[in-house]
Amino acid sequence: MQHEHHRVPVTALAFWNENVILAGEGTLLKAYDVDRKTLLAAVEVFDGQAIHGIVVAEHEETCAVVWGGPNVCYVEAIPSAKGSIELKVGPRLEANDWILDVGCSGASHHGGSLAMLVTAHNGLQMLPSSTLDGGKIEPLVPGSNCILYCAEIRWLSGSQCLIASGTAFGDVIVWSCILKDVDGKLCAEYQTHYTFSAHEGSIFGVQISSSEVAERLGGRQRLLATCSDDRTIRLWDVSDLSKGSPTLIEQQRQTGFGSIADNDAYAPPSLGKVMGHMSRIWHIRFEHDTTTGDVFVLSFGEDASNIIWAITANSGKTGLPYSLQQVGLQRPHNGKNIWSLALKNHRVATGGADGAVSLQRFLTLQTDQDESYSEGSAAKNIGVFRAYGFVDNAQILASTDRGSLYLVDLPGKDVVYTTISDAIPGLRGYSVMASISGCAFVAGADGEVWVYKHHSRTLTPIATTGRKVAGLFVQQVSANPLEIVLLITNMGKSTASLYYIEPDRSHDASRSDVQELCIPNGFVTTSFAHARREGHNLVFLGSRNGSIANFDTTLKDEDDRTPHMSQYPGAHGVETVTEILIAPGSSDNEMYLTSSGRDGTYAVHEVTFVDQRPNMRTVHQISLPFGPNIEGMGFNEQDHLWLWGFRSTQFVVLDIATQQEVMAVECGGAHRIWSFQPNRDGGIFVWTKASKLYRQIQLQLPCEMINPGGHGREIKCTAISPDGSRLIATGAEDTDIKLSTYQNGTFRTLHTLQKHNTGIQHLQWSSNGSYLFSSGGFEELFVWKITKDIPSINIGVICESKHPRSGTSDLRIMSFDVQDSDEATFNIIAVYSDSTLRSWHKPQTQTWILLAKGDYLTSCLTQCLHLNTTSTHLQDSPRLLTASTDGHIASWNHSDELQRLSWSSRHKIHQNAILALTSCNLPTQSRLLITGGDDNAIGITLHRPDGNSFRTLLLPNAHAAAVTALAIVKADRGRVWLVSASIDQRVKLWRVGIDLGKEGVDGVDVRLVGDWLTSVADVSCMEVLELEEGKGVLVCGVGMDVWRVGEDGLV
Amino acid sequence: MGKSSKDKRDAYYRLAKEQGWRARSAFKLLQLDEEFNLFEGVTRVVDLCAAPGSWSQVLSRILIKGERIGRATWEDKRYAELLKIQPQDSAHEQPPRPEPRKDVKIVAIDLQPMSPLEGITCLKADITHPSTIPLLLRALDPSYSAETSSIEASHPVDLVISDGAPDVTGLHDLDIYVQSQLLWAALNLALCVLKLGGRFVAKIFRGKDVDILYAQLKCVFARVEVAKPRSSRASSVEAFIVCTDFRPPEGFKASLDNPLQQIKPTTSSADSEQTRTVRDDGITELHLPQTDPNRWIAPFLACGDLSAFDADASHKLPEGHVSLDPVQPPTAPPYRRALEERKKMGGAYGKTKLGGGGG
Predict the structure, then answer these.
(1) Rounded CA gap, A516 and A508, in Å?
(2) Are A1014 and A1 in contact (CB under 8 A)?
(3) Which residues of B are annotated as catalytic?
(4) Which residues of A touch B129 (CB under 8 A)?
(5) Is residue A821 within 8 Å of A827, Cβ to Cβ?
(6) Which chain A residues in 253-292 lie under 8 Å from chain B, judged by CB atoms?
(7) Are the beta carbons of B356 and A305 separated by less than 8 Å?
(8) CB distance A858–B113 less than 8 Å?
């Protein structure tokens, strides 16, 4: 097999130069173009070892040191044609211990630079010069018995380096080493300066500041920042290196927690302390703004966020001299853990457990916080704003409590207010507004509706409705001549008025064309969309009660009003439909309606016309990672669908196409007046808070993805659509299901389904790929209907049905097997964590019918399989098989009368849990069952229908650890090619020959064809993946890994 | 997860509380004993990374109080079954009686403080520190003096056990490395105090390159097996290495001043042929050649009665089940103070701007 591609946690990052970043992703070292976000090169550095660190020497941009575990080597990047580069790996060297950091000196008196490594036992070793082949690692300072989680080497000169080490028990050791040339041999003199208990938990990150940074804080020489399990970040003054401290061992103190009191004698002065993340903090870095001179600390945590802290001096005489203020927060990764980072020229790159590499601009981050402006003092007597509407990309029309209207110019340094109208009595105390580019409509309590035309800056009355206006909705109908449609709804009025307006023409012509729409009972209009089709004007209205109604204005009742044609209830449950957009379908007979709602979902509805009457069918509806207030949507310049709304106190914008958060504004929450105008990489958000206007303008994405990520936690199951679309469904511990494609060597996520409340246990597609089934804890088993070829979202997904719930049970549905009876009717066998199983019939209607129930013993069932008994001559042959944590497979019979499933035979294969099961049919109704066990074994079992016999050939040491995934990649003429994977991170290809003519398993021959390392830890599942050319397997766990199974392996 | 739902989800959590164990891991040692008869002829034991002390509790109840639990209950159960089948033979096969053992010495060591247990000497010490050895030897034999005796114990111990594990970070490579370092620390100490033929049981993570570790352990013990008690979840990488018959190579001298971090396997047990054996239960085992001398896959043994509770299954709670409090509250986490601070600033989910909570 050949390795194709993987997406695994990014455990090392370093900027090669301005334009190229190096990333350690499993065993591969990758080089990315920072601006183009393209992969330039990838190379495997160590055999069977992931990369844990990369360091590029500051002064020379030709050579990097890469390490992982105890392995280390030099890597050269050689520019090649077309802006690409080639990574050339030098000789691999091995230290005698795990490497925590490597430091490269500036040019030393020897000429070249020196590279020193520090180990997990605080030993110091020298790497041979990069220019020499055949050199070896030279130990300089032996290690001790203490175990470190982190260390940093900083060269103070060409011959002296300072090391800060953080132990598992919360101690920090600061020591230095001076290199001396004694008779041509390099010797080290080392001294410990500080040994102290710095934190109450393991220390995961340390950094020694540069002298430039330290200089800013009271003219100090160097600072130390530490972060820990105890959730704090602490700053220390380690300027004074004249001090000596005994080593940890010399102190003869008991290491471990709770022995703090005895060693403050060798602690440096504490400068500051702050409680950081709500999780463990993995990394800490100093950064300073060279223009303002401000000093910051950046922390990176288990919570997948990074926080920027400003260091400010405390004025008080008591307490610590500095405090740390949070001035920025980013959450660039899914799920948990930022494992790696790199900083260069105020750019921060982070690598996550989700496999993503993200890039942020440090300066943007912290100024963004101050982007919001209250109204300027010059405009003090403007009053409180009531409503906003964007009239172009940078300006809003704003109405005030007093009834005045202002044009507000947002982008400048100061917001500029231009009076459009002095107080209009009808707008006093209450006003509503709707706008599109070029004009805005505003109305108030007296029912008078005004139009503002932006090109002439004029305000004119357009309609008199006589009642308080509840809502205004506007949409452009055609561009040339400009025609817009305005809908006005009034309080206590059962009709809504529809106006067609051509703003460029005179008023009189437009006023006449008014249509009255009869609003259904209980319907409060909250959203509006208009479409023209075959000469008919169609109107879709969304309601506060979650329904969508439609109208055809050519249809009129006797009072010349248009009644609604049909109503589609529950489009968003019973929650407000906040926005509706219409997109044309592939034929004249269909269109697509996209809607967003306060039920936390957005939806796509397919509308088909029969005799001019529309029929609506929801083809897509999923929850978003924010909400429940999803407030609106639109398309950006690249035609990506964006959705926006609120998450707690933040306004959030999400790009559906890239599945990335575009913008997040801390605005205080959903209950305020706001307006949003999207642009290419963000937009302008204005809101009222404490009676003031605030704005946030974002012209750049806060985080750019150099390489997008996947699940933030380990994947538990996967299933690949059998219909040729090769849609990959993955379910993870983070409770998400992701639908992705694998094309051109990369994964692309289309949708993230967030509905399960626990980690996903099992996924399966229907045989035609139009349904996906997923199970988890709390008796959750969902049926997802998949619809293809939907504009702008590609794949539509709705949760069509779910397993009935007793309401009290927290049972996990460990696995299930689905058989289609027809396109939308299924028979489902589900196995539960309490050793029971149930057979369900799922007709197209909503109700599930329980066909039969069975009890196994006490052990948890882990797998199940329908047995296709196509032949009728074996009436009493078993219907299904289960596997369980007791290592047995059991065959089950079903008696229809008793609605009872009972096991007819049990066959022991493994010593304990069966974690994987796959099978294929053999001639003469026989079946090959292959099982993977927690006992490291693979069981190859022949099931012969005559006598229901099971015979097993067991490979006890198939792997060095639990066998968790199996896939049959090819089966032909008595031979089966099997791929197995285990948490030992090996992937093995086996050839199994089967001669059914021989007794028992005598005819089963097993050969190991090959054995490879996967960078995916905690492998949980595997599926056969059809590649663009040929066949492969997809291995999932902590990451995803694609292997091509070459034809040469299958002989 | 609430106490009651945890009771349902985890039978051993519930049982531990009902039977007075400080932690559910007590069952792991009991089930290891069922399979390996760990305590046969054992009177001197060192329990490493002992806190909160559930393994020491097992030692105390079996060795000091002579209770018939673990292997002994299994034997008793078996005996009762034999009685049913062959009642006539029962006359001359009396079940063994509970009997406290003589001269029992148990020393428990941990960095964390541990509540005392009767008859057990608890030491708060670092198992990697050279000074711990004389401390331990003195605890085993009060007459021991570091000046007169060699570091290799004058009265070596029969069994060294360690249930130690680090707080996992989630970075698999690192977690496996740190766990292996803990195992080496335990082994280094065991090498100093274990008698020839002695036993060593320690927690191991079955992950990447675990076969290298097995191959190295095989150099100092005649038998090395890896065991998974039923009370350990199938979904967990945790397993236990059970090493019996301590046989260090000729001239081997252990010390903590110069701890081992690896042993180079000297003899290769590499075989190149596939072999087939038919077991009594009819399953044919196919043994594959293990060709790399630096790697060796230790035989795997699942232990604990098959009828024992399954750690992965959900269980119905007995009628009228009352959820008990844990015997000992969990050790204070290092972020305890952070939680307290948070509470002060506005509750556990307080309205502070700290961290990525809202982010």
Answers:
(1) 18
(2) no
(3) 203
(4) 145, 249, 254-255
(5) yes
(6) 254-258, 275-280, 282
(7) yes
(8) no
With CB atoms and an 8 Å threshold, state whether B334 touches A278: no
Sequence ranges of the domains in chain A: 9-280, 629-700
Averaged pLDDT for residues A913-933:
93
The residue ranges of DSSP E strands in A183-303, in sequence order, are 185-197, 203-208, 223-228, 232-237, 270-275, 281-288, 295-301
A908 interfaces chain B, CB cutoff of 8 Å: yes
Coil vs helix vs strand at A365: helix
- The two three-digit tokens of residue A929, written as one number: 């069952």
Q: Which residues 324-343 of chain B have a CB within 8 Å of chain A?
A: 333-338, 341-342
How do strand A975-982 and strand A986-994 relate by DSSP bridges? antiparallel
More confident residue, B356 or A573: A573
Domains of chain B: 3-89+96-328 (3.40.50.150)
Q: B354, A275: Cβ pair inside 8 Å?
A: yes
pLDDT at A103: 93
The pLDDT tens digits for A119-159 are: 999 999 999 877 666 788 999 999 888 899 999 999 998 88
Between the CA atoms of A956, A958, A963 and A968, what dihedral angle is there, to the nearest 10 degrees? -120
Mean pLDDT in chain A?
90
Whether A200 sits inside 8 A of B112 (CB atoms) is no
3-state secondary structure of A81: helix
Give the Cα separation of A159 and A142 in Å (integer): 18
Q: How far apart are CA B196 and CA B198, in angstroms?
A: 5
CA–CA gap between residue A141 and residue A237 (Å, rounded): 25
The pLDDT of B349-353, averaged and rounded, is: 41
Residue B37, burial from CB neighbour count under 10 angstroms (0-12, 13-18, 19+): middle
Q: Residue B323, class by beta-carbon neighbours within 10 Å (0-12 exposed, 13-18 middle, 19+ buried)?
A: middle
Which among A647, A909, A1008 is the nearest to B288, CB-wise?
A: A1008
Say what the ipTM of the complex is.
0.91
Which among A412-416, A580-584, B97-101 has the top mean pLDDT? A580-584
Confidence class for position A506, pLDDT limits 50, 70, 90: low
| CATH topology classification for A9-280 | Methylamine Dehydrogenase; Chain H (2.130.10)
- Cα A692 versus chain centre, distance: 35
With cut-offs at 50, 70 and 90, classify the pLDDT of residue B349: very low
Which pLDDT value is given to residue A255? 46
Dist CA B344 CA B338 (whole Å) = 10
Which chain B residues touch A354 with a CB distance below 8 Å?
none
Chain A CB within 8 Å of residue B79 CB: no
Q: 3-state SS of chain B?
A: CCHHHHHHHCHHHHHHHHHCCCCCCHHHHHHHHHHHCCCCCCCEEEEECCCCCHHHHHHHHHHHCCCCCCHHHHHHHHHHHHHHHCHHHHHHCCCCCCCCCCCCEEEEEECCCCCCCCCEEEEECCCCCCCHHHHHHHHHCCCCCCCCCCCCCCCCEEEEEECCCCCCCCCHHHHHHHHHHHHHHHHHHHHHHEEEEEEEEEEEECCCCHHHHHHHHCCCEEEEEEEEECCCCCCCCEEEEEEEEECCCCCCCCCCCCCCCCCCCCCCCCCCCCEEEECCCCCEEEECCCCCCCCCCCCEEEECCCCCCCCCCCCCCCCCCCCCCCCCCCCCCCCHHHHHHHHHCCCCCCCCCCCCCCC
Interface with chain B: mutation pick from A51, A94, A197, A254, highest number of B CBs within 10 Å:
A254
Going by the DSSP 8-state scheme, the letter that residue A895 receives in this structure is: E
Strands A1031-1045 and B44-48: unpaired
Q: Give A786-834 pLDDT, tens digit per residue.
A: 999 998 899 999 999 999 987 667 899 999 999 998 888 999 999 999 9
